[in-house]
Amino acid sequence: MQSAPHVEFRGVSKTYDGRTMVVRDLDLRVQEGEFFTLLGPSGSGKTTCLMMLAGFEAPSSGEIRLSGRSVQHLPPRKRGIGVVFQNYALFPHMTVRRNLAFPLEVRGISAASRRQRIRQALEVVRLDGFEDRRPAELSGGQQQRVAIARALVFNPSLVLMDEPLGALDRRLREEMQFEIRRMQQDLGVTVVYVTHDQQEAMAMSSRVAVFHRGHIQQVAAPETLYEEPEREFVASFIGDNNMLRGHVRKAERDFCDVETPGGTVRAFPVHGCRPGDRSVLAIRPERVSLTKPGVYTNEFEAVVEDILFIGDHLRLRVNLCGNPNFIVKIQNTVGHSAVLEGDRVRIGWSVMDCRALPDEEGGSGPTPVNQQGTENRSRSAVDAGKPKTGRTNDSVLAQSHREDGV
Amino acid sequence: MALSLAAARFRAAALTLPLVAFIGVTFLAPLGTMLVRSVHEPLVADSLPDTLALLDEWDGTSIPGEKVFRALGLEFQELHKQRALGGVATRVNRLETGMRSAVIRTARKLRDVNPDSWKEAVIAADPVWGEAKAWRALQQSGERYTARHFLHALDLGQDSVGKVVLQPPDRRIYLPLLGRTLAVSIVITMLCLILGYPVAYLIANSSTSKANLLLLLILVPFWTSLLVRTTSWIVLLQNQGVINDLLVAVGVTTDETRFPMIYNMTGTLVAMTQILLPFMVLPLYAVMRTISPSQMRAAAALGATFRQAFVRVYWPQSVPGVAAGSLLVFILSIGYYITPALVGGRTGQLISNLIAYHMQQSLNWGLAAALGAVLLGCVALLYCLFNRLVGIERMRFT
Amino acid sequence: MNAHHTSRIKLQGVVHAFIVALATHAVAAPEAVASDSVTVVSWGGSYAEACKKAVMDPFTIETDIEVRLESYNGGLAQIRAQVETGSVHWDVVDLEFADLVRGCDEGLLELVDIDELPPAADGTPARDDYYEGTYSECGGGGIFYSTVYAYNNESFAGERPTTIEDFFDVEKFPGRRGMRRTAVGNLEFALMADGVPPEEVYEILDTPEGLSRAFNKLDTIKEHIVWWEAGAQPPQMLADQEVIMSTAYNGRIFNAQVLEQQPFTIVWDGQMLDYSQFAIVAGTPNLEAAKRFLLFASRVENMAAIGRYIAYSPTRRSGIDLISTHHETGVEMRPHMPSAPENMGRVVRNDWEWWSDNGEEMNERFSVWLSR
After folding, report:
1. Distance between A128 CA and the closest CA of chain B, angstroms
2. Are C and A close enough to touch, i.e. 3+ CB pairs under 8 angstroms?
3. Which residues of B touch A103 (CB under 8 A)?
4. Which of A26, A100, A104, B366 counts the most CB atoms within 10 A of its CB?
């Protein structure tokens, strides 16, 4: 099927004050039936993209197309897109039925047809029987379902969702993730979904676009993003990664040797490498092992500074190759529980599990990774307790460390 | 434990006592006094106890007997001596015009006499005592509790057989004025709503800094003295004022045909609308601030035109503010006094100005109180109506 | 909240009472004990000036009692407020006769025994020297004055108004007219202009039809009327040509004519003759000084002296002969007095008794008519 993509951004830029670019020269294609997630920290431009797509903001330059047609001059009401807002934006003075009837009435759909569609939509979100409640009489999850039903009831082929689960508690959120995914697949609609929660993005999406400072860092399926991050930001934002910085000393076709403060590490160059380049290495904690000498190409000795007992696994913090917060994640098996703080251990990982990426941080001033970490924590209490990114994880460790030390 | 809790609760309640006392003294007591005064007029009853007691047995149509005339004569003599007859005469006169001078004249002529026939002497002093209407007036004004002031305030009168009837049109004073006051209040409320709604919408949907600036612009006049604002309108609107000068200068009008914009209804409407506008904008803003901008976006995304979105989504949610603001403006304008007094001229006066007239000039406090009570009734009625339509607990004032 | 705002409305009346009480109290406080002074309240402007020069200054010279002069626009309201709140700070008030009688009846004014007033030069007691009905049980002194209408000569190129009918004829004399913002006088003028002979005016006014007739007549010029309240206003309005003619107190016009050389003409036709007296406010703390002032002001020569400053004549028979010339310009005063025979063509005498019976109702109806 080689038809035009359902949603297409062509060189879209957006600035509010004429100086700061919120979105820079963005290109994006979403295919029919995709569950496409815009993922990024707040202020990364993902919501602005959604608002431009819905028609509430106009691009400063570039063009947005829906099924091949430019929507430049189309007001929101003529785009036929279902939108689920961050705080649902249910009409508080209307019952559930009236809320759902609203998009149908303004479209002049007959009363009989309205009734049927409302019933269907409520069935889809499993809220039949709640027709005469007002939003205030519903729980957060139920309101969420009504908002989704209202966005679906007029059968749009494209539905936009702006952090729809942000206000829900963790359990409900996980439940709703399934629900939304199920509905999307049942109805076959295209969904463009905005979230800052990478776990949510991974769980639901067919493809994810990672936003950072108005740019898309990488667009890929969740597995690809995790296994093969192509940019430093993606590597640090998606899942946990240990980052090591250094200079390329030797470049081969399949590997390169990077000199870090703690020794030379052999890594897989994602974009190729040249000697002298600054490079950052990303190594997943779960791909690092405690080892005997001679097993891995990359092996280092380190002292265990902290041990965090998670349950099914342990997290060891070591100071390695210039990264004082290098994390090693080991399965909670009989042998490993013998490791104690202060023990000297040998750590190793394979070349293929160590991705050498261009060091974007060195040239660009402030450390975005750190920023992400703090932002993510302050955003939601739930997030803070649940390590997701490398830095978040670090800070959890750092916290426990502080408690010990002070 | 329970005891200390009760004590704490009592202490908390005790903190409100100064306010309760304050309200009691400055609001409830005067209000009560006023309401009592509107129906209670004991002066004549206290002044002529014997005469009135004897009149209880009077049939109401014939001329009373000698006993009554004697009591009247003696009491008039005593009152005249004490110089306390003026008030009595004034009150009887309100029921029967001409009785004022008749009472005074009678008392003056009866001074120092002790006739054999009081009846003859009194009728000789003023023949009106030979007519039943004089006695009826005396008897009626001797009622301690009277609906007279209320009847008067509602332009009702009693005909010769005591039936309550509406005054003939050219004698109606208060009903037309009350009607005008209500009409003016409605017009001012509408003007404030029409002018204030978009402003409140703008403020509620602006960035914080811009909203603060706009609110300041709304509030600065609010903080300015009422008199200053009212007199500023005089400067602007008078015949030789800024606006007329401007209109003459640009040739819209000529020196001879300057627009009369003040000392009439226009002046009252303009000045009061301006003065009361903040009372509309603030409650509106308070409500609109709580309406998320995503509501309108949601409506648009769901396919509504701006008009549909406004009518069906925004307006219904702003209704509590509209109701609160309108109620506030309406109630304030219905009792407004200073501004119409200053800029209303001949045709821009409202009922409160007449209340003030009776308080300060004619000193008919009973009537002033009754008019006030009628006004209070109107407001109470309105309150009930609003409560029915909107629900007072849904209103937001700040 | 509702309670709060209704309170605002309801309280208004009460607030007025408080304000009256506070205001009178505030003003009264600083001068409460000055027994060597007396506060006299008159009508302001050139009339008050005349009283000051003719009566008050000589009184101060003779008795060493200082006179504080205040002005008001008539009515009993302020006196009543002072008496009822018990904070009297006016001692002597110059009152229109109807108000004087009412105030006396209601005990708002101190009684004055007519036999205490000084006799005429030839020994005639005051009781006989006063014209019939021009003294009350509370009054002293007294002048005849008249409400007339006057015009500015410069406002008329051709024909000038000469009768009370002309005042009400807006076709013949288009332009704005000044009138006092009160019922008294205006109703009488209206009826006379409508063809009612002066002596029948009150008889007609007593009937509902007659009253309507008066208001209907006023209706014909209502849109052309500029309302004044203080006696000093009409000469000013005439001088500014804000109005082409205005009702006014004859003395004010006279003073404008002789002192300011204003080109004003008085139309005596249809004048309303009136008289006023000084009276003492009941309960004044300065009763002694007030009484001395009243007796001083009742001396014939002092009453007549006012006529040297303004065209008002004394209400005592023996005073007529004492009318001489204007103190400054030397103008012969007699022809300018309301009671001069040549001015007495068509005259209505203010029936104070009718007004004391009907005043309250008339004022109410007048204010309604005004606002209509």
Report:
1. 21
2. no
3. 302-304
4. A100
| Rounded CA separation B334/B354 (Å) | 13
| Contact with chain B for residue C207, Cβ under 8 A | no
Shared domain for C123 and C150, answered yes or no, is no
What confidence score (pLDDT) does residue B2 get? 67
User: Is C11 part of the contact surface with chain B (CB cutoff 8 Å)?
Assistant: yes
Q: CATH code at B354?
A: 1.10.3720.10
Q: How confident is the model at residue A314 (pLDDT cuts 50, 70, 90)?
A: confident
Q: Within an 8 Å CB–CB cutoff, is residue A93 touching chain B?
A: yes
Q: Which residues share a beta bridge with B220?
A: none
The boundaries of the domain holding residue C53 are 2-144+276-322
Which residues of chain B from 21 to 80 reach within 8 Å of chain C, CB to CB?
26-27, 30-31, 33-34
For residue C18, pLDDT beyond 70:
no
Instruction: Give residue C19's pLDDT.
Output: 42
**pLDDT per residue as tens digits for the range C82-110:** 998 889 999 999 999 988 988 888 889 99
Q: Do B308 and A106 touch (CB under 8 A)?
A: yes
pTM listed for this prediction: 0.75
- Closest Cα in chain C, distance from residue B105 (Å): 10
Which of chain A's residues have a Cβ under 8 Å away from the Cβ of B295?
89, 91
Contact yes or no for B359 and C16 at CB 8 A = yes
Contacts of A137 (CB under 8 A, 6+ apart): none
Residue A385's pLDDT is 36
CB contact under 8 A, B360 and C364: no
Lookup: tokens for C177: 């007219």
Chains sharing 3 or more CB pairs under 8 A with chain A: B
Side-chain-facing half-sphere of C56: CA atoms under 13 Å = 23
Q: Are residues C206 and C115 in the same domain?
A: no
User: What's the structural domain count of chain B?
Assistant: 3
Query: Scanning every residue of chain A, which has its alpha carbon at the shortest distance from the alpha carbon of B306?
Result: A77
Q: What is the mean pLDDT of residues C348-355?
A: 90
Give yes or no for residue A37 having a pLDDT over 90.
yes
- Looking at the partner chain, which of C20, C105, C215 has a beta carbon nearest the beta carbon of B85? C105
Q: Could you tell me which residues come within 8 angstroms of residue A125 by beta carbon, excluding any fewer than 6 positions away?
A: A145, A146, A148, A149, A152, A179, A183
What is the least distance, in Å, from the CA of A29 to any CA of chain B? 22
Residue A334's pLDDT is 65
In a shared domain, residues B327 and B362:
yes
Range picked from A93-107, B151-165, B344-358, C33-47 for highest mean pLDDT:
A93-107
**ipTM confidence:** 0.73
C260, C346 Cβ separation under 8 angstroms:
no
Domain range for B19 is 2-37
Which range (A377-386, B289-298, B317-326, C95-104) has the least confidence? A377-386
Q: Say which of B295, B305, B308 has its CB closest to residue A89.
A: B295
Exposed/middle/buried for residue A107 (C-beta within 10 Å: 0-12, 13-18, 19+): middle
* Cross-chain residue pair B27–C12, CB shorter than 8 Å: no
Maximum CA extent, chain C: 74
**B92, B126, B144 — which closes off a domain?**
B144
The pLDDT value recorded for residue A361 is 65
Using the beta-carbon criterion (under 8 Å), do B298 and A54 form an inter-chain contact?
Answer: no
CB contact under 8 A, C108 and B368: no
Share of chain B above pLDDT 90, in %: 38
Return the pLDDT at B233.
Answer: 86
Looking at the 3D structure of chain C, how many domains does it have? Answer: 2
Q: Which two tokens stand for residue C259?
A: 């002192």
Nearest to B296 by CA among A158, A55, A164: A55
| B chain contacts of residue C11, beta-carbon cutoff 8 Å | 26-27, 30-31
What value does the mean pLDDT take over residues A308-314?
Answer: 81
List the one residue out of C264, C94, C93, C272 whose CA is nearest residue C180: C272
Closest to A160 measured CA to CA, from A14, A331, A34, A340: A34
pLDDT at position A368 over 50:
no
